[in-house]
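Bit of a strange request maybe. I'm writing a small parser for structure token strings and I need a real example to test against, not something I typed by hand. Could someone generate the tokens for this chain?
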Amino acid sequence: MADKAGQKPPNEQEIIKFLQDFTQKLIVWGSDSVLKSFTTFRESLISYSGKEPPVESLVLFENYMLEIRRDLGHKNKNLESGDILALFINDIRKYTNPDATVQ
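Reply from user aminoacidic:
Good idea to test on real output. This should exercise your parser:
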């Protein structure tokens, strides 16, 4: 999204630093379910290192975001699969099941 905002995308070193800092904070502040969900997402990305991750990894990222919302007290009851991803991926509906409900 940096390109669309007229900003320079982060380089690999900046991404690594962000993830290190983020992981430390997640360990301290994240609930068990948020931590587990992030770990599942992260492991899916590691398995595709150097290659484009599949849509399934995006779905795992959405599950992670939903766990954060649930941890904050949101019910997510009216959300469907792809609703969060659609906020920043224009064509995600081509790859997700629009009739699937969130767990």
